[in-house]
Amino acid sequence: MKLAKKEREELLSLIERKTATQRDVMRARIALWAHEGHPNTVIARELRVSVQTVCAWRKRIAQHGAQGLREGERS
Fold first, then answer.
1. Using CA of residue 24, residue 70, residue 59, residue 52, what is the dihedral sign?
2. How far apart are the two ends of the chain, measured CA to CA in Å?
3. pTM (predicted TM-score)
């Protein structure tokens, strides 16, 4: 998965933001690690989340770009 330069910069900025939520930072890190070519198992182990979580967010980011990190409305 490859991110545009602008998307990558936005994600790096998000990670550094002190007001960012932990889940947003985790999602940004998943995207950045995926961009760097790390396999799902490595990302999951390093970020201490499930492989299913990594797969779900990689898929969503691949479909929607960095904007996919935001959760949709819940019913």
1. positive
2. 30
3. 0.85
